[in-house]
Write a structure and sequence with these properties.
The chain has helices at residues 2-7, 29-34, 37-46, 60-65, 67-87; strands at residues 15-16, 25-26, 50-53, 91-94. It is α/β, with parallel strands linked by helices. The strands form 2 sheets. Strands 1-2 form a two-stranded parallel sheet. A two-stranded parallel ribbon has the order 3-4. Helix 3 (37-46) crosses helix 5 (67-87).
Amino acid sequence: GALMEAFGARNCVGTYSSNKVEGMIHFDLEKAAFNPELADDLMKTVYPTLVCICAGFTWVDGCESQPAKANLMNNTGPAVVAAAARAHGARTVWYSTDYV
């Protein structure tokens, strides 16, 4: 949402995972961690020049009780997306936190 508002829908493609958002494309970061082809398919759909990864599993209690999911969402998934972006000539910006 916020990046799309800042850059405009004409210059930016947003994704959503569980709550459908009009004008955005469905993409499941956790599933992409297991299946990198999903990230490759996303890149083939939007042909980005820049990919901003601002998704993750940020619920601290959940990260502590579900460390495998936290690793998938905050490490493996974004790394898969970044690799797909690089393979398609796009740069990546990855927003994260040191709190989880």
